[in-house]
Design brief:
heterodimer, A: about 190 residues, Rna Polymerase Sigma Factor, Chain: A, Arc Repressor Mutant, subunit A, B: alpha+beta, 9 strands, about 20% helix
């Protein structure tokens, strides 16, 4: 039987960086692990909620709901069944969808929590989940590949512009782009 | 990116571009989130790799504070009265009320003041509002994301003007971000309709 005291948990957290371990310590009430997990996933969780809710205040509330759920239910996470990032992404998606349902139930002034009927929230949630996993996978890439892919597909630079920006041969940029995308595809499978 | 890629890599590239840049979480979210362990009264343990579905709205620290004063709030009388510009305010903020769909020619302003005794006053002056039809009235609201609070109902004069005042506590006032006016059934509503007449943001 493995039992982790709070003191030993803190020691382990200091030397462990996997999100799965952080969740294990959160399940034992480790606030330091909770803070570390927040810093790791805050932008991704908030981004997923914002993608569904499209309103910053509502997204902030939903993100807090997601982290509250993580705090309460970290013990339910089973690393054997999937990656922590994927689990956190689903928690964020569910929090955003719940917030959207509550919002839809209220008769609101249109300026407050505008309900966007143009797209199905479920579709938005699927897209948000996919984007979440993609970002997790991107974060897991070696920095040199992550930088090239970010400049290319987030900032919209051409390969020549990236080569100039990073002072690299064009061929190196092409190589890193290709290897980065291939590694990203592999990472995506892992965080399914 | 002009480089030709294999279909699988091209698909990943398109997804990456569609995902867009990651937004920065608001700084306030960190403080709110790290206060969760303090606010959590219980930890639900489940078995298996279950993704929790947060069906119940969890109280966040800020709302739990509000919940704590709910009993006090219930006793607070919020009665629209004719405004006599109040004196003795320690801190006043002037809020412009802009016209919305129900009253496109309407306008208004509000003086939001906090007082040393822990109370707060919202003195609102409106004009250009259409006369409500039979069985309808105007209602003022305070709100923030996911939370609306009715302030009270009021009537307009024949010329579409009204001067009204509402009293609440400073702590209550501090939680809200918006002030607005809607058209509601006589007697008021517990939730605002989308017949919004005026709208203003509290800073």
């Amino acid at each position: 039987m493995t039992r982790i005291s709070r003191q030993s948990a803190a020691t382990i957290v200091a030397t462990t960086t996997t999100s799965e371990r952080l969740l294990a310590h959160i399940a034992h009430g480790d606030r330091g692990a909770f803070a570390e997990l927040y810093d790791r996933y805050a932008n991704a969780v908030y981004g997923a909620c914002l993608r569904v809710l499209r309103e910053p205040h509502a997204a902030e509330d939903a993100a807090q709901e997601a982290f509250a759920a993580i705090w309460r239910h970290a013990g339910a996470f089973d690393a054997a069944r999937g990656a922590a990032g994927a689990w956190i992404g689903r928690v964020a998606r569910n929090a955003a969808l719940d917030a959207n349902r509550r919002r839809a139930l209220r008769a609101t002034a249109p300026e407050v929590d505008p309900v966007d009927d143009r797209e199905n929230p479920e579709d938005l949630a699927v897209a948000a989940d996919e984007a979440f996993r993609l970002r997790m996978a991107l974060d897991a890439l070696p920095e040199r590949e992550r930088t090239v892919l970010t400049l290319a597909y987030t900032d919209g630079l051409t390969q020549s512009e990236i080569a100039e920006r990073l002072d690299l041969p064009l061929g190196t940029v092409k190589t890193r782009t290709r290897s980065g995308l291939a590694r990203l595809a592999d990472q995506l499978e892992r965080v399914q | 990116m002009s480089e030709q890629l294999e279909p699988e890599l091209e698909r990943i590239a398109r997804k990456l571009a569609a995902a867009g840049p990651l937004p920065d979480a608001p700084a306030s979210l960190r403080e709110r989130t790290l206060a969760i362990p303090d606010a959590a009264a219980e930890t639900v343990q489940e078995t298996g790799n279950v993704v929790p579905i947060a069906r119940r709205a969890r109280r966040r620290p800020r709302t739990s504070i509000l919940a704590g004063i709910a009993a006090v709030a219930a006793a607070i009388v919020i009665v629209p009265t004719v405004v006599i510009l109040h004196g003795g305010s320690d801190n006043a903020e002037h809020v412009a009320l802009d016209p919305r769909g129900f009253a496109p020619k309407g306008s208004g302003s509000a003086s939001v003041a906090t007082h040393g005794d822990g109370s707060a006053t919202i003195a609102m002056r409106v004009w250009g509002l259409p006369t409500p039809s039979a069985g309808r009235t105007y209602e003022a609201w305070l709100g923030r994301a996911g939370d609306r609070r009715p302030l009270g109902t009021f009537s307009t004069k024949a010329d579409g003007t009204a001067n009204v005042s509402f009293t609440l506590t400073r702590r209550e006032l501090g939680a809200y971000k918006w002030l607005w006016v809607t058209n509601e059934p006589a007697g008021g509503s517990s939730q605002p309709s989308n017949r919004t007449a005026l709208w203003g943001s509290l800073t």
